[in-house]
Automatic annotation (TrEMBL):
It comes from freshwater metagenome. SMART domains: AAA. It holds the Pfam family ABC_tran. This is Unannotated protein. The keyword Ligase does not apply. CDD domains: ABCF_EF-3.
Length: 226
């Protein structure tokens, strides 16, 4: 499997500025609070924390899928966001693979069915399978479809929540190779230490307290616990 993400369009120097973000559910204590960070063009931010620390909630907020309880964030100039949801929430399960990937094509971009099938084919989704309802796919196939859908969006910022879950080793390596050479900005969550090392994060955001640090190999010991 050979995967290649398209060149990202240019964006402003500052891609995300988040200020005192907090998220709670109901009357209980917030999952996280006062999280402040910024990320520049081409950086890779690893969001790290134990289960329940708010990693997925933070990515959902940045993706516009949820609202913060308090605080705010903004994107820089000409930032186009692609979001990979851990539970594949963005898949239309009653529609075909071809329909799903076509729905992500921006209105100002023209891609033929042959081109779309080529992108699916990069992930091993080919032949009559492209006409299947996405709800019939295995977990690994859903992951591949969701990743293929990111390729058509002309994104320069990717928000990735456990993008290697359910992938076989060869596919995981192909995705890691593609993302490690991609020149856009990435904010990601992963418990796969080898994948994290290959993506070469520039910063770490520790949840739920919001501590930001430069990445070093020492952080890899915590990745598999996250």
């Amino acid at each position: 499997m050979k995967v290649k993400f398209p060149e990202p369009p240019p964006s402003g120097a500052t891609v995300i500025t988040a200020t005192r973000l907090s998220k709670g559910y109901g009357a209980g204590s917030p999952v996280f609070e006062d999280v402040t960070f910024d990320i520049g063009r081409g950086e890779r931010l690893l969001v790290l924390g134990l289960n329940g620390a708010g990693k997925t909630s933070l990515l959902r907020i940045l993706a516009g899928e949820a609202q913060p309880t308090l605080g705010d964030f903004k994107f820089g100039h000409s930032v186009n966001v692609g979001y990979y949801a851990q539970e594949h929430d963005n898949l239309r399960t009653n529609e075909s693979l071809l329909y799903n990937i076509r729905s992500e094509v921006p209105s100002n971009v023209m891609l033929t069915e042959t081109q779309l099938r080529g992108m699916l084919g990069m992930f091993g989704l080919m032949g009559e399978k492209v006409f299947q309802d996405s709800g019939t796919l295995s977990g690994g196939e859903k992951t591949k479809l969701a990743l293929a859908m990111l390729m058509v969006g002309r994104n320069n910022l990717l928000l990735l929540d456990e993008p290697t879950n359910n992938l076989d080793p060869a596919s995981r390596q192909a995705v890691a190779d593609a993302l490690s050479t991609w020149k856009g900005t990435i904010v990601f969550v992963s418990h796969d230490a080898e994948f994290v090392e290959q993506l070469k994060p520039t910063k770490v955001l520790l949840m739920p307290d919001g501590q930001v640090d430069f990445f070093s190999p020492d952080w890899l010991e915590l990745v598999s616990l996250a």
